[in-house]
Design goal:
Layout: E1 2-6, H1 9-16, E2 21-27, H2 30-33, H3 39-55, E3 61-67, H4 73-76, E4 88-91, H5 95-104, E5 110-112, E6 114-124, E7 127-132, H6 148-151, E8 168-169, E9 172-176, H7 178-188
Parallel strand pairs: 2-3, 2-4, 4-5
Antiparallel strand pairs: 1-6, 6-7, 8-9
The chain binds iron/sulfur cluster (SF4) (2 copies).
Residues 152-154, 156, 159-161, 163-164, 169-170, 177-179 line the site of one iron/sulfur cluster.
Length: 224
């Protein structure tokens, strides 16, 4: 899932700046699971903003709504007849959701309330760990399911480096060496040949936004 964290409140106050009537829009998917931008968090933030503005004698009219998913156009439709009359939209979605919302309502300022941090997994209540950096050249098939981009301090596609030490990474004894983990996993599976397979360095020259179109995809009529 996409993991994020709420922006510092001072930054939120600055972003909202002069606006007097705003709609705070939550997202019911990833950011709700990581307890950052779902219905509950939207209500909490709206209450905090309301209180702060009252205390500073600059009252704000703030409403809240949470949609199923902000990175999917069909779930934004419910907002079409709701945004009129607001000075700005606040959004608690990840960066992708913010952009879709801003695209749908280009006349209205759309302000992010959340910093998107990474694609991760849930390790415990309130503990999320990065596991993918969407590198677009996934090597998990040859690394025994251990991601060297996120788990290795140097994001080495071919490792280990010279700093590996009895299974630990040179940056800290608390940090397992990703390539040691890869070695152990492949050994368990009888696939150690994989560790000598060379992965070419990632191509960085093409920096246009990446897209993937699934076979059989047809543009909806509304977008043709
Ligand atoms: S190698 Fe790691 S960063 Fe790249 S796509 Fe696979 S899991 Fe994501
Ligand atoms: S010691 Fe292991 S995890 Fe640390 S940077 Fe080197 S290869 Fe990566």
């Amino acid at each position: 899932m996409i993991v994020g964290k709420r922006k510092p409140f001072e930054e939120i106050k600055d972003l909202i700046g002069p606006y007097k009537k705003v709609l705070n829009v939550g997202c019911g998917t990833c950011v709700a699971v990581c307890l950052v931008g779902g219905e509950k968090e939207v209500d909490v933030l709206s209450a905090e903003i309301d209180m702060a503005r009252r205390l500073s004698k600059e009252p704000i009219d703030i409403d809240s709504i949470t949609v199923e998913r902000q990175c999917d156009r069909e779930y934004l439709e419910v907002l079409d007849d709701k945004v009129e009359g607001y000075d700005a939209l606040l959004t608690m979605a990840c960066g992708a959701g913010v952009q879709f919302l801003a695209e749908r309502f280009p006349e209205t300022p759309v302000l992010p309330m959340v910093d998107t941090t990474f694609i991760g997994v849930n390790q415990g209540v309130g503990w999320y760990e990065e596991r993918c950096r969407s590198c677009s050249s996934c090597v998990l098939g040859v690394t025994g399911g251990v991601c060297p981009v996120t788990m290795c301090a140097k994001s080495l596609y071919n490792g280990p480096c010279g700093g590996t030490n009895h299974g630990k990474c040179e940056i800290s004894d608390d940090q397992d060496c990703a390539w040691h983990m890869i070695y152990e996993r492949l050994e368990k599976q009888g696939r150690l040949d994989g560790i000598i397979a060379f992965t070419p360095a990632r191509e960085h020259e093409n920096q246009v936004p990446r897209t993937t179109i699934q076979p059989g995809y047809k543009k909806p009529e509304s977008e043709q």
